[in-house]
Amino acid sequence: MYADHPTTSADTPVVLSLGMGIDSVAILVHWILNPASRSFPLHRLVCITAMTGEEHDRTGELMERHVLPLMREHNIRYVQLSRAGQAAHHRYSVLSDTRSPRLMHMRGPWRLSHEMRSGGTLPSVRNGRRWCSERAKGEVLDWWVNDNMPSGYTHVVGFAAEERRRALRDTAARTEKQATGKTVACVPSYPLLDQWQWDRTACAEYLRKIFGEPFPRSCCRWCPFTGATAGSRPELLQRWRQQPDAAADAIELEYTALALNPRIGAFGVGKTAIDLAREHDLTDAVAIAEQRIEAAEVWDVLEIRRIFLAKDQDPRRKGDAWRSVQVAATGSRSALLEWLARLDNGGQRNTDQYGITRLWRRRLPGPQEISYPATEWLWVLVPHGVQPKKRPGFEERWTNLHAATLF
């Protein structure tokens, strides 16, 4: 299923997805310093990075200090990209394309946080894939490859020895994209997994030996996946102590997402970034986030309606959730608090432990009483910026389900 090594064709390009983290950087450095590890000349190598716009500052610093000089010395082509806008028709922006790279262009015209803020949401996993990575990286790389690479090129990804399942998913996804015409055909290659049997620890030790300092994993400043497990949390907390503004980013984004859906947190159900910061005395980060939220001059009252369908027609099992988000009022925070108070004639307004004020019209029943399909309906006060959104057919389904019981 996997290529043993990148293609040896005399003219076919070898593309390395250079994610700026431990694994992909280890591949590049090993290829440069150990020519026997590759079967192609470096002039055929193209390194590509799609920027989320949210990477830790230190990642860019280490790339400029250690990796870019090697690429300049060996005349390696490096393409830095960013999504050009929210919609697919915006395509991508080329931030740099050179064989003599000197600067990391870590921010493009679009940033992943733009999508989080406008959607009032947080990164999540859908169908086994991190949709945030697909939006900020996968689609951008596919678009550029389609425009610049010939069919049959070799595409190298830095999956470590312990990540065979991810490599299998990647191969399947590439096969599907090629079959549906979404991207040109390529030969996937995973040298860490298939040739060298290097796990992440081996990659980290290799880079430490070469550069004399540790290379961190690449991730967004507020990535929920880096702190979702107890094993990864110490690294996240260390970074947040060193960069309290990064932790504040996570808390600020989470504030709006929690407002729209109190059942979620940055690290899963009931696992919030603000609670983690408070638990570990990250007082600077909490203060920065609270100051940013308080400083917002324009706020919105959002009307949130949700429909929770039954899975496989079973009223005991929750299926898909449909959501409608509409702006009900805009103004200062104090004025909108008064607006909500006037709307509240049944004592259903409350402010939670995170300072989020909601007015409930219809709550979900408790776990023992709920039967699907079910609905909830509320108004919530948030900093301005969440865009209205509603699935096609929502109003018809909402009315048909509960016309007799909503009023």
Question: What does this entry look like structurally?
Answer:
The protein is an alpha/beta fold and 407 residues long. The chain folds into three domains: 14-211, Rossmann fold; 224-295, no CATH class; 299-402, no CATH class. The protein has helices spanning 22-33, 57-73, 112-119, 131-148, 164-179, 191-196, 200-211, 233-242, 244-260, 273-279, 283-295, 333-343, 394-402; strands spanning 14-17, 45-51, 77-83, 92-98, 125-126, 129-130, 153-156, 186-189, 299-311, 314-331, 349-351, 357-362, 374-383, 389-390. Strands 4-3-2-1-7-8 form a six-stranded mixed β-sheet, with helices on one face.
Features:
3 domains, disordered N terminus, single chain, 6-stranded antiparallel sheet, alpha/beta, 6-stranded mixed sheet, globular, 14 strands, Rossmann fold, 407 residues
Structural class: alpha/beta
Helix content: 25-40%
CATH architecture annotation of the largest domain: 3-Layer(aba) Sandwich
Mean pLDDT comes to 89
The run of helices and strands is EHEHEEHEEHEHEHHHHHHEEHEEEEH
CATH topology of the largest domain: Rossmann fold
The main β sheet shows up as:
6 strands, mixed
Number of strands: 14
**Principal-axes shape call:** globular
Strand neighbour order, sheet with most strands: 4-3-2-1-7-8
Helical stretch tally = 13
**So what's the CATH class of the largest domain?**
Alpha Beta
Number of separate domains: 3
N-to-C CA distance:
59 Å
Radius of gyration: 24 Å
Strand content: 15-25%
pLDDT < 50 runs, ≥5 residues: 1-5
Task: Set out the fold topology.
Elements: E1 14-17, H1 22-33, E2 45-51, H2 57-73, E3 77-83, E4 92-98, H3 112-119, E5 125-126, E6 129-130, H4 131-148, E7 153-156, H5 164-179, E8 186-189, H6 191-196, H7 200-211, H8 233-242, H9 244-260, H10 273-279, H11 283-295, E9 299-311, E10 314-331, H12 333-343, E11 349-351, E12 357-362, E13 374-383, E14 389-390, H13 394-402
Parallel strand pairs: 1-2, 1-7, 2-3, 7-8
Antiparallel strand pairs: 3-4, 5-6, 9-10, 9-13, 10-14, 11-12, 12-13
Helix pairs in contact: 1-7, 8-9, 9-11
